Amino acid sequence: MSKKKTAAIVLAAGMGTRMKSDLPKVMHPIGGRPMINHLLATLDKIHVDETVVVVGPDMAQLEAAVAPRKTAVQFDRAGTGDAVRVGMEALGPFKGNVLILYGDTPLIREQTLNAMLEAREAQPGQLSPTVVVLGFEPDDPGVYGRLVLDDEDGELMAIVEANDATPEQREISLCNSGVMCFDGELLPQFLSRLSDDNAKGEYYLTDCVGFAREDGFRCVVVDGDEEELIGVNSRVELAQAEVIFQDAMRDKMMKGGASLIDPSTVYFSFDTKIGRDVLIEPNVQFGLGVKIADRVHIKGFCHIEGAIIASGAIVGPFARLRPGTNLGEDAKIGNFVEIKNADVEQGAKVSHLSYIGDARVGADANIGAGTITCNYDGFLKHKTDIGAGAFIGSNTALVAPVNVGAGAIVGAGSTLTQDVGANDIVTTRAELKSAPGAAERFRDRKRAEKEQRQKEKPKKD
Ligand code: UD1
Ligand code: MG
Questions:
Q1: Can you point out the beta strands (E) in 365-412?
Q2: Which one is catalytic: 297, 303, 352, 382?
Q3: Where a domain ends, among 194, 229, 264?
Q4: 201 located within any domain
Q5: Beta carbon of 207 within 6 Å of any ligand 1 atom
Q6: Which CATH number belongs to the domain containing residue 57 in this structure?
């Protein structure tokens, strides 16, 4: 970790026209979280002392998403140099490292930023570098700024934007990722010297490298990896970033002791927590707020969000767990079951085709196929409480609010509109009426009717 204090300026003033969206670009989610918040979480991990996010005008939603961090509004999109100037004004005089990041480059890793901060520390016998630039070698250097190195000492001499580069400079494969770290005391005077006399008519932050060299300061390059430096400018790039993020999450889960039979078909949210010896079958999606304890088995094709699952539980295949689901130890949720805002306690089973919402299912209770908690009366939601060890027969409708006592047995096909006492047996089905032998008489009559109709049909010639 760096010994110096560190501030971060995150550039996020661009609306991202290529996203074709009403949402500021950096608010688009990856793994269920706005991309700007991924970056801010990484900055928290490296213990940045202060952060300023440079936003565009009318981006209240973005300002709320980054709160309580400072924001500064850049009114004219006059280039990265201008954006940093706006950020520095909000930051005020700062002695230490000033990291510059882009809000639309959200997957940069903690280790990479730490390597940049370390590069700013003085090595024995040398002045500490004033500017550290994160460089990378993309497959296609295209529009990236090129890093021009000194042939003798390998240090950075200048960054030349692609549009302003000579054909020889365009051949350089080492490019500017945009992430930079400056000496905070010297940065303001470099920024004050910027001009917009260039191909784009913008204030280029990258020109600060040339000024630092002119003044006799050192500028160095730290190497980054193309995957973590992916910039998101379009929905296609957003999807590419999501793939990179999901692959990283799958690796993390497997390293943490979960088995994924077909990792590429399992999708996580940024906050998914999974224990050890958890088995996840193919085609499972975890929405926000899922916590899974040890030895849980999630069978194929489940959709799980806002659920807490205790150890040993079995879920699926084809189960849907919605927010507020709490599964106790060894609980079992089977196919085509939907659970919402409900506690299914230890050892309870809801094995087939059921809806359990706004409910408690007591320990070891057994819920038969097709059971529905009728929790909504068209205006309000009501609670169903099923006691421990109760048995709810198949195709039962529990019209909430309703309580079933512990150990009670509810006969199949019941519609419960009143409470059931503990250990009672109840049925609400209609009496069976029987007409012995009537089926044969019915068939004889129908056969005769059919023959009669066929005789009466006009014959074709
Ligand atoms: C910039 C770098 C280039 C580098 C590339 C990496 C400069 C002059 N060029 O070019 O060397 O290879 O990034 O992706 O710095 N932004 C603002 N306000 C502005 C302008 C930009 O907030 O006035 C933000 C954008 O929202 C974006 C970031 O800064 O997040 C980069 O801006 P962009 O216009 O994409 O810079 P490039 O031309 O790609
Ligand atoms: Mg760009």
A1: 366-367, 372-374, 384-386, 391-392, 397-399, 402-404, 409-410
A2: 352
A3: 229
A4: yes
A5: no
A6: 3.90.550.10
Please report whether residue 348 resides in a domain: yes
Ligand 1 contact, 325 CB (< 6 A) = no
Is the distance from the beta carbon of residue 393 to the nearest atom of ligand 1 less than 6 Å?
Answer: no
User: How far is Cα 288 from Cα 361, in angstroms, rounded to an integer?
Assistant: 24
Look up 352 and say whether it is catalytic: yes
Domain boundary among 199, 229, 259: 229
Overall pTM surpassing 0.90 (yes/no): yes
Give tens-digit pLDDT for 1-49: 567 999 999 999 987 889 999 999 999 999 999 999 999 999 999 999 9
Do 277 and 376 fall within a single domain?
Answer: yes
Nearest CA to ligand 1 atom 17: 13
Number of domains in the chain: 2
In a domain, 446, yes or no: no
Please tell me the distance from the alpha carbon of residue 319 to that of residue 284, in angstroms, as a whole number: 10
Tell whether 252 is covered by a domain: yes
Torsion angle in degrees (nearest 10) through CA of 282, 30, 37, 146: 120
The 8-class DSSP code of residue 458 comes to P
Pair (397, 327) in one structural domain: yes
pLDDT digits (tens, 9 = 90+) for 238-295: 999 999 999 999 999 999 999 999 999 999 999 999 999 999 999 999 999 999 999 9
